[in-house]
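Thread: quick sanity check before group meeting

JM: Hey all, I'm pulling together slides for Thursday and realized we never actually wrote out the predicted structure for the chain we discussed last week. Dropping the sequence here so it's in one place. If anyone has concerns about the input, flag it before I start.
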Amino acid sequence: MRLRHRSMFGSAALAALLVLGLGGTALAGRSGAAASAQADSVAAAEVGALAASAGCGRAPGLASGTRTISSGGQSRSYILRIPANYNQNNPYRLVLGFHWWGGTAVDVDTGQTVQRDVWSYYGLQRLANNSTIFVAPQGIGNGWANSGGSDVTFVDAILAQIEANLCVETTQRFAVGFSYGGAMSYALACARANVFRAVAVYGAPRELSGCSGGTQPIAYFGAHGIGDNIASGRALRDRFVRNNGCTAQNPPEPPGGSLSHRTTTYSGCRAGYPVVWAAFDGGHIAAPQDGAPGDSGSRTWLPG
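JM (edit): ok, ran it. Output follows.
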């Protein structure tokens, strides 16, 4: 398999956490600011070569649907979504989407809690346009307590199973989640910074899933409502502002009643390790929209 040196990180907005433009397919809907940030990031982030998984070049050993796996002596499950035009010789980026407390893998996979299909994998599956393998793990008791690191070990097992059977670009693994799922994505940023390229943390109330390690840099996107204990989101963000060597600042946030959002890309970060912060006028919601309260899968600015 021919591997090429390419940028490992595309843009500084959430779509960038999915590495826009890699594999020849860009996610749609970038704003002018995101496009500008992408140009800066691409210039700074030529930090490594692509690395194909063991499953490349082989007939796929897994199909889309619910999978079960043994982890830590327990039977665990996850939903797998493989691109419709899957090519066993093309290394795909891999995105894990974690549900909130009381949510399910089905909720993440279908997007049914906000807008079915449109909100699948937090709106990213639609934008990915068959360029990405998506995974929705199921938490024990519909949460991510990560007791003794059990959920991180579960993720390790998922990666091992998928990458042995499918063609994955192992430098392009990403985690995204809302609320408890955001806390789980944060736990992976702490414990598996050398495994995941980037994380997106939406409305995580605090370190509910722990933070084992937490000293290495990783590309980080945080989004939080100003009416949702935003101090916790800032504290989580600031760990990776420090780890990534970014210049400390107090990013502007929108005023209450504005029904708007403000996105800040930190300066001074190590090449390839941006930190982006999006604050919005709203509460504990996963798909905020400008100009109106509440969730909207079709109107939200967040996936883009």
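AS: nice. The beta strands are 65-71, 74-81, 92-98, 132-137, 168-178, 198-202, 219-225, 261-265, 275-280. The CA atoms of residues 23 and 131 lie 7 Å apart.
JM: adding both to the slides.
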